[in-house]
Amino acid sequence: MEKVIIDVDTGIDDALAILYAVKSNKLDILGITTVCGNVPIDLVTVNTKKVLKLLDSNIKVYKGASQPLLREPFYEFRVHGDNGIGGTLNDIEVSSEIEDLSAVDFIIEKAKQFKGELSLVTVAPLTNLALAIRKEPKIVEWIKKVVIMGGLVSEAGTGNTLPTSEFNIFADAEAAKIVFHSGIPMTLVSLDVTRKGMLTEKHIEQLKGSPFYEFVRDSTEVFRTFTYENYGENGCALHDPLAVAVLIDEGLVQTKEVYVDVETKSELSYGQTICDFQNLLGKEPNMKICLDVDHETFLHRFIEYLKR
Ligand code: BDR
Ligand code: CA
User: Among 20, 38, 69, 89, which lies 20 to 30 A Cα-Cα from 50?
Assistant: First the structure.
Protein backbone atom coordinates (compact mmCIF):
# COMPACT_ATOMS: atom_id res chain seq x y z
CA MET A 1 0.00 0.00 0.00
CA GLU A 2 1.11 3.54 -0.82
CA LYS A 3 2.74 5.25 2.18
CA VAL A 4 1.23 8.68 2.56
CA ILE A 5 1.06 11.79 4.70
CA ILE A 6 -2.05 13.93 4.31
CA ASP A 7 -1.60 17.67 4.94
CA VAL A 8 -4.89 19.35 5.88
CA ASP A 9 -6.55 22.56 7.09
CA THR A 10 -9.78 20.89 8.27
CA GLY A 11 -12.19 22.36 6.83
CA ILE A 12 -15.36 20.61 5.62
CA ASP A 13 -13.94 19.03 2.48
CA ASP A 14 -10.69 18.19 4.30
CA ALA A 15 -12.82 16.18 6.72
CA LEU A 16 -14.42 14.37 3.79
CA ALA A 17 -10.96 13.76 2.29
CA ILE A 18 -9.85 12.10 5.53
CA LEU A 19 -12.97 9.91 5.50
CA TYR A 20 -12.27 8.97 1.87
CA ALA A 21 -8.61 8.21 2.53
CA VAL A 22 -9.25 6.04 5.58
CA LYS A 23 -12.30 4.21 4.26
CA SER A 24 -10.71 3.49 0.87
CA ASN A 25 -8.51 0.91 2.65
CA LYS A 26 -5.99 1.61 -0.10
CA LEU A 27 -3.48 3.82 1.70
CA ASP A 28 -0.93 3.35 4.45
CA ILE A 29 -1.54 6.69 6.19
CA LEU A 30 1.59 7.39 8.27
CA GLY A 31 0.14 10.51 9.84
CA ILE A 32 -1.86 13.64 9.19
CA THR A 33 -0.23 17.05 9.35
CA THR A 34 -2.14 20.26 10.00
CA VAL A 35 -1.58 23.80 8.78
CA CYS A 36 -3.17 27.20 9.18
CA GLY A 37 -5.68 27.67 6.35
CA ASN A 38 -9.45 27.56 6.35
CA VAL A 39 -9.39 28.28 10.11
CA PRO A 40 -6.62 28.95 12.69
CA ILE A 41 -4.16 26.14 13.34
CA ASP A 42 -5.44 25.08 16.78
CA LEU A 43 -8.94 24.70 15.42
CA VAL A 44 -7.63 22.82 12.37
CA THR A 45 -5.81 20.41 14.67
CA VAL A 46 -8.80 19.85 16.95
CA ASN A 47 -11.12 19.36 13.96
CA THR A 48 -8.75 16.82 12.43
CA LYS A 49 -8.62 14.84 15.67
CA LYS A 50 -12.42 14.92 15.91
CA VAL A 51 -12.79 13.51 12.41
CA LEU A 52 -10.34 10.73 13.26
CA LYS A 53 -12.29 9.98 16.42
CA LEU A 54 -15.48 9.80 14.37
CA LEU A 55 -13.64 7.23 12.26
CA ASP A 56 -12.43 5.40 15.36
CA SER A 57 -8.92 5.73 13.92
CA ASN A 58 -5.65 6.02 15.83
CA ILE A 59 -3.76 7.85 13.07
CA LYS A 60 -1.63 10.54 14.69
CA VAL A 61 -1.96 14.26 14.01
CA TYR A 62 1.10 16.51 13.77
CA LYS A 63 0.57 20.21 14.25
CA GLY A 64 2.14 22.48 11.66
CA ALA A 65 2.57 26.12 10.69
CA SER A 66 0.41 28.69 12.44
CA GLN A 67 0.83 31.27 9.69
CA PRO A 68 1.91 31.59 6.05
CA LEU A 69 5.59 32.19 5.23
CA LEU A 70 5.24 35.96 4.72
CA ARG A 71 1.62 37.05 4.72
CA GLU A 72 -1.05 37.31 7.36
CA PRO A 73 -3.40 34.32 7.58
CA PHE A 74 -6.55 34.49 5.44
CA TYR A 75 -9.37 32.36 6.86
CA GLU A 76 -12.48 31.02 5.12
CA PHE A 77 -15.13 30.89 7.86
CA ARG A 78 -17.70 31.93 5.24
CA VAL A 79 -17.34 28.57 3.49
CA HIS A 80 -16.58 26.28 6.44
CA GLY A 81 -18.67 27.80 9.25
CA ASP A 82 -17.64 29.14 12.65
CA ASN A 83 -15.96 25.95 13.85
CA GLY A 84 -14.52 25.01 10.43
CA ILE A 85 -16.62 21.86 10.07
CA GLY A 86 -20.02 23.39 9.45
CA GLY A 87 -20.97 23.54 13.14
CA THR A 88 -20.79 19.76 13.60
CA LEU A 89 -18.92 17.38 15.95
CA ASN A 90 -19.37 19.69 18.95
CA ASP A 91 -20.10 16.70 21.16
CA ILE A 92 -16.83 14.90 20.33
CA GLU A 93 -14.14 15.54 22.92
CA VAL A 94 -10.49 15.28 21.94
CA SER A 95 -7.30 15.80 23.89
CA SER A 96 -5.48 19.07 23.40
CA GLU A 97 -2.09 17.35 23.69
CA ILE A 98 0.04 17.51 20.61
CA GLU A 99 2.74 15.18 19.29
CA ASP A 100 6.35 16.05 20.12
CA LEU A 101 7.27 16.21 16.44
CA SER A 102 6.04 19.20 14.45
CA ALA A 103 4.40 18.63 11.06
CA VAL A 104 7.57 19.84 9.32
CA ASP A 105 9.85 17.47 11.25
CA PHE A 106 7.42 14.60 10.78
CA ILE A 107 7.45 15.10 6.99
CA ILE A 108 11.27 15.21 6.98
CA GLU A 109 11.58 12.15 9.23
CA LYS A 110 9.23 10.00 7.15
CA ALA A 111 10.72 11.16 3.83
CA LYS A 112 14.14 10.09 5.12
CA GLN A 113 12.89 6.81 6.57
CA PHE A 114 10.97 5.82 3.42
CA LYS A 115 13.16 7.24 0.67
CA GLY A 116 11.43 6.98 -2.72
CA GLU A 117 8.30 5.47 -1.16
CA LEU A 118 6.54 8.36 0.57
CA SER A 119 3.80 10.33 -1.17
CA LEU A 120 2.06 13.42 0.15
CA VAL A 121 -1.44 14.68 -0.50
CA THR A 122 -1.70 18.36 0.34
CA VAL A 123 -5.23 19.75 0.54
CA ALA A 124 -4.30 23.01 2.24
CA PRO A 125 -1.86 25.92 1.87
CA LEU A 126 1.63 24.58 1.13
CA THR A 127 3.40 26.16 4.11
CA ASN A 128 4.42 22.92 5.86
CA LEU A 129 5.98 21.34 2.79
CA ALA A 130 7.79 24.58 1.87
CA LEU A 131 9.22 24.81 5.39
CA ALA A 132 10.28 21.15 5.26
CA ILE A 133 12.07 21.73 1.92
CA ARG A 134 13.86 24.75 3.39
CA LYS A 135 14.91 22.84 6.50
CA GLU A 136 16.02 19.65 4.71
CA PRO A 137 16.44 20.28 0.97
CA LYS A 138 17.24 16.59 0.36
CA ILE A 139 13.58 15.66 0.86
CA VAL A 140 12.94 16.73 -2.72
CA GLU A 141 14.87 13.64 -3.82
CA TRP A 142 13.33 11.40 -1.17
CA ILE A 143 9.63 12.17 -1.68
CA LYS A 144 8.06 9.98 -4.36
CA LYS A 145 5.35 12.46 -5.35
CA VAL A 146 2.93 15.10 -4.13
CA VAL A 147 -0.68 15.44 -5.16
CA ILE A 148 -1.71 19.03 -4.53
CA MET A 149 -5.28 20.28 -4.31
CA GLY A 150 -4.87 23.83 -5.48
CA GLY A 151 -4.83 26.39 -8.24
CA LEU A 152 -6.78 27.13 -11.35
CA VAL A 153 -5.13 26.57 -14.70
CA SER A 154 -7.42 26.70 -17.70
CA GLU A 155 -10.61 28.35 -16.48
CA ALA A 156 -9.03 31.74 -15.79
CA GLY A 157 -11.31 34.25 -14.13
CA THR A 158 -13.25 31.70 -12.13
CA GLY A 159 -11.17 31.57 -8.95
CA ASN A 160 -12.68 31.18 -5.50
CA THR A 161 -10.62 33.76 -3.58
CA LEU A 162 -9.58 36.25 -6.26
CA PRO A 163 -10.91 36.06 -9.83
CA THR A 164 -7.62 34.42 -10.80
CA SER A 165 -6.80 32.56 -7.62
CA GLU A 166 -7.75 29.47 -5.68
CA PHE A 167 -7.74 29.49 -1.87
CA ASN A 168 -4.91 27.02 -1.04
CA ILE A 169 -2.44 28.76 -3.32
CA PHE A 170 -3.69 32.27 -2.47
CA ALA A 171 -3.38 31.58 1.28
CA ASP A 172 0.40 31.12 0.92
CA ALA A 173 1.62 31.78 -2.62
CA GLU A 174 5.26 32.10 -1.51
CA ALA A 175 5.11 28.57 -0.11
CA ALA A 176 3.47 27.30 -3.30
CA LYS A 177 6.30 28.84 -5.34
CA ILE A 178 8.91 26.95 -3.32
CA VAL A 179 7.03 23.67 -3.75
CA PHE A 180 6.32 24.19 -7.48
CA HIS A 181 10.03 24.76 -8.17
CA SER A 182 11.28 22.00 -5.87
CA GLY A 183 11.63 19.27 -8.49
CA ILE A 184 9.40 16.83 -6.54
CA PRO A 185 7.15 14.97 -9.02
CA MET A 186 3.73 16.54 -8.57
CA THR A 187 0.15 16.55 -9.80
CA LEU A 188 -2.03 19.61 -9.43
CA VAL A 189 -5.70 18.84 -8.81
CA SER A 190 -7.12 22.27 -9.47
CA LEU A 191 -10.54 23.92 -9.37
CA ASP A 192 -10.82 23.18 -13.09
CA VAL A 193 -11.59 19.57 -12.19
CA THR A 194 -12.65 19.66 -8.54
CA ARG A 195 -15.75 21.68 -9.45
CA LYS A 196 -16.84 19.31 -12.20
CA GLY A 197 -18.67 16.90 -9.92
CA MET A 198 -20.73 18.46 -7.14
CA LEU A 199 -21.92 16.53 -4.11
CA THR A 200 -25.67 17.15 -4.21
CA GLU A 201 -28.53 16.35 -1.85
CA LYS A 202 -29.28 13.36 -4.09
CA HIS A 203 -25.80 11.93 -3.46
CA ILE A 204 -26.07 12.63 0.24
CA GLU A 205 -29.34 10.70 0.41
CA GLN A 206 -27.51 7.74 -1.15
CA LEU A 207 -25.31 7.74 1.95
CA LYS A 208 -28.24 6.71 4.16
CA GLY A 209 -27.13 3.71 6.17
CA SER A 210 -23.55 4.97 6.28
CA PRO A 211 -22.15 5.81 9.75
CA PHE A 212 -21.15 9.16 8.20
CA TYR A 213 -24.50 10.06 6.63
CA GLU A 214 -25.48 12.65 9.23
CA PHE A 215 -22.00 14.12 9.40
CA VAL A 216 -21.83 14.61 5.63
CA ARG A 217 -25.38 15.98 5.47
CA ASP A 218 -24.94 18.42 8.35
CA SER A 219 -21.33 19.50 7.86
CA THR A 220 -21.80 20.32 4.18
CA GLU A 221 -24.93 22.38 4.70
CA VAL A 222 -23.12 25.69 5.18
CA PHE A 223 -20.81 24.91 2.24
CA ARG A 224 -23.74 23.99 -0.01
CA THR A 225 -25.60 27.17 0.97
CA PHE A 226 -22.49 29.25 0.28
CA THR A 227 -22.08 27.60 -3.13
CA TYR A 228 -25.71 28.22 -4.05
CA GLU A 229 -25.68 31.85 -2.92
CA ASN A 230 -22.40 32.70 -4.61
CA TYR A 231 -22.29 30.50 -7.70
CA GLY A 232 -25.94 29.49 -8.16
CA GLU A 233 -25.10 25.78 -8.06
CA ASN A 234 -26.73 23.08 -5.96
CA GLY A 235 -24.29 21.02 -3.92
CA CYS A 236 -20.67 21.51 -2.95
CA ALA A 237 -17.41 20.62 -4.63
CA LEU A 238 -15.39 17.73 -3.21
CA HIS A 239 -12.08 19.51 -3.78
CA ASP A 240 -9.98 17.69 -1.19
CA PRO A 241 -11.45 14.18 -1.54
CA LEU A 242 -10.70 14.33 -5.28
CA ALA A 243 -7.00 14.95 -4.56
CA VAL A 244 -6.92 11.83 -2.37
CA ALA A 245 -8.81 9.90 -5.04
CA VAL A 246 -6.25 10.95 -7.67
CA LEU A 247 -3.38 9.75 -5.50
CA ILE A 248 -5.08 6.36 -5.24
CA ASP A 249 -6.03 6.19 -8.92
CA GLU A 250 -4.61 8.69 -11.39
CA GLY A 251 -6.80 7.10 -14.05
CA LEU A 252 -9.67 9.24 -12.75
CA VAL A 253 -8.18 12.33 -14.39
CA GLN A 254 -6.79 13.27 -17.76
CA THR A 255 -3.41 14.90 -17.21
CA LYS A 256 -0.86 16.93 -19.14
CA GLU A 257 2.73 17.78 -18.21
CA VAL A 258 3.33 21.52 -18.27
CA TYR A 259 5.28 24.32 -16.64
CA VAL A 260 3.31 26.13 -13.95
CA ASP A 261 4.44 29.11 -11.86
CA VAL A 262 2.76 31.16 -9.14
CA GLU A 263 2.20 34.92 -9.08
CA THR A 264 3.40 36.43 -5.81
CA LYS A 265 3.78 40.14 -6.59
CA SER A 266 0.49 41.39 -7.95
CA GLU A 267 -2.35 42.57 -5.73
CA LEU A 268 -4.86 41.76 -8.43
CA SER A 269 -3.69 38.23 -9.14
CA TYR A 270 -1.70 37.15 -6.07
CA GLY A 271 -1.75 33.37 -5.92
CA GLN A 272 -2.61 32.83 -9.59
CA THR A 273 -1.25 29.56 -10.99
CA ILE A 274 0.03 30.45 -14.44
CA CYS A 275 0.28 27.56 -16.82
CA ASP A 276 2.49 27.91 -19.89
CA PHE A 277 0.38 25.76 -22.24
CA GLN A 278 2.27 26.98 -25.32
CA ASN A 279 5.75 26.78 -23.76
CA LEU A 280 6.38 30.45 -24.43
CA LEU A 281 8.80 30.54 -21.50
CA GLY A 282 10.77 27.57 -22.84
CA LYS A 283 10.87 25.85 -19.42
CA GLU A 284 10.73 22.14 -18.71
CA PRO A 285 7.37 20.90 -17.34
CA ASN A 286 7.39 20.85 -13.54
CA MET A 287 4.08 19.11 -12.88
CA LYS A 288 1.06 17.32 -14.24
CA ILE A 289 -2.13 19.32 -14.36
CA CYS A 290 -5.61 17.83 -14.63
CA LEU A 291 -7.69 18.69 -17.68
CA ASP A 292 -10.69 16.48 -17.09
CA VAL A 293 -12.11 14.08 -14.52
CA ASP A 294 -14.36 11.05 -14.51
CA HIS A 295 -16.52 12.57 -11.80
CA GLU A 296 -19.19 9.90 -11.96
CA THR A 297 -16.74 7.16 -11.03
CA PHE A 298 -15.24 9.39 -8.36
CA LEU A 299 -18.62 10.21 -6.78
CA HIS A 300 -19.61 6.56 -6.96
CA ARG A 301 -16.44 5.61 -5.06
CA PHE A 302 -16.98 8.41 -2.55
CA ILE A 303 -20.41 7.01 -1.70
CA GLU A 304 -19.24 3.39 -1.76
CA TYR A 305 -16.25 3.99 0.56
CA LEU A 306 -18.23 6.04 3.07
CA LYS A 307 -20.86 3.34 3.30
CA ARG A 308 -18.28 0.80 4.50
C1 BDR B 1 -9.63 24.51 -1.13
O2 BDR B 1 -9.75 25.62 -0.23
C3 BDR B 1 -10.27 25.19 1.00
O4 BDR B 1 -11.23 26.09 1.47
C5 BDR B 1 -10.81 23.80 0.78
O6 BDR B 1 -10.67 23.02 1.96
C7 BDR B 1 -9.98 23.26 -0.34
O8 BDR B 1 -8.79 22.67 0.13
C9 BDR B 1 -10.53 24.75 -2.33
O10 BDR B 1 -10.16 25.93 -2.98
CA1 CA C 1 -8.55 22.11 2.49
Answer: 69
